[in-house]
Write a structure and sequence with these properties.
With 302 residues, the chain is mainly β. It is 0% helix and 58% strand.
């Protein structure tokens, strides 16, 4: 069975800048030229607020950092806005007319539960800076989804946009603390901004022990859709599923092809996969221990 061969860790922040105090979470790859990639990721300042920045690598020497952004491309919003505690990018989608859509997770701190998330959008035109589309989210909790929504994967196919996103199904008290439960749902759009969601479940809980499924990463191979995602009971691992239409999925977690290492930065958990193709090869960016506190690495599909 084909598996992912781990190449190694790419980056772990060491307080190089104010917004790089800790973590490098939810990596996203964007091709610049043949072998050069811009990798966006979310880091935290000393107050644990999330920012999105980027670095540049050569895919043939991924542990050599060629460039780190001087300042973040996304910052927390103004006081009281949906992203005032963090702006964490989760996906980039190419639009027409040299326009890129950057979908991101807005973080709010809460009182009865630790946080509330929603999905925001920033747009770059003609390779310019990413500008937030609005001061409010494009997807938020609703009558049908009353808790929160978060990490999304968005693919445009002709004039149809498809989104797979995290949807919270509730909170429960576990070990005297509130604990979230969330899985992955599916939505569609004509423009990438206004979304129709009918509470359609794409990836559901495997059993009663599983309570968190997040960061879907979807690719289409000829007549089959493939998805890698994070899932956890005790610790995060990477799951896998297949679909004929992108809506109805069959989980095949044993075919994920990647697991924790015996030791090191990704020996306790692996999560937040981003799968992409480059020059005939398929790669996966992913986080390791402590939700990205130990940085992110890369693997190649063999």
């Amino acid at each position: 069975m084909p598996k992912w061969k781990k190449i190694g860790k790419i980056f772990e922040p060491s307080k190089e800048k104010f917004w790089l105090s800790s973590h490098a979470s939810v990596p996203i790859a964007e091709k610049i030229e043949k072998d050069h990639l811009r990798i966006y990721f979310s880091s935290r300042d000393q107050y644990q607020r999330s920012y999105t920045g980027y670095l540049v690598i050569n895919i043939n020497r991924p542990n050599e950092i060629l460039e780190i952004s001087e300042k973040p491309i996304l910052e927390p919003g103004n006081l009281g806005e949906f992203d005032d505690s963090g702006a964490m990018a989760s996906w980039i989608t190419e639009e027409e007319n040299n326009c890129r859509f950057l979908y991101y997770i807005g973080w709010n701190l809460s009182v009865t539960v630790p946080f509330r998330n929603s999905i925001g959008l920033a747009i770059s035109k003609n390779n310019g800076p990413f500008i937030k589309y609005s001061k409010g989210p494009i997807l938020d909790r609703s009558a049908q989804e009353p808790h929160f929504c978060a990490s999304s994967c968005v693919i445009k196919e002709k004039n149809s946009w498809k989104m797979w996103y995290l949807s919270c199904t509730g909170w429960e008290i576990y070990s005297n603390k509130p604990r979230h439960n969330y899985h992955i749902k599916y939505a569609e759009s004509d423009d990438g901004i206004n979304w129709v969601r009918n509470s359609y479940i794409a990836i559901n809980y495997k059993d009663d022990n599983e309570y968190a499924i997040s960061r879907p990463s979807v690719v289409k191979d000829q007549d089959i859709w493939r998805m890698w995602f994070s899932c956890r009971g005790t610790k995060y691992k990477i799951g896998y599923a297949e679909s004929i239409d992108g809506k109805d999925w069959i989980r095949k977690d044993t075919n994920a092809g990647i697991d924790v290492s015996e030791s090191g930065w990704d020996s306790e958990m692996i999560e937040y996969p981003f799968v992409f193709d480059n020059e005939g090869s398929r790669y996966m960016l992913y986080n390791g221990n402590q939700y990205g506190k130990t940085g992110f690495g890369i693997a190649v599909f063999e």
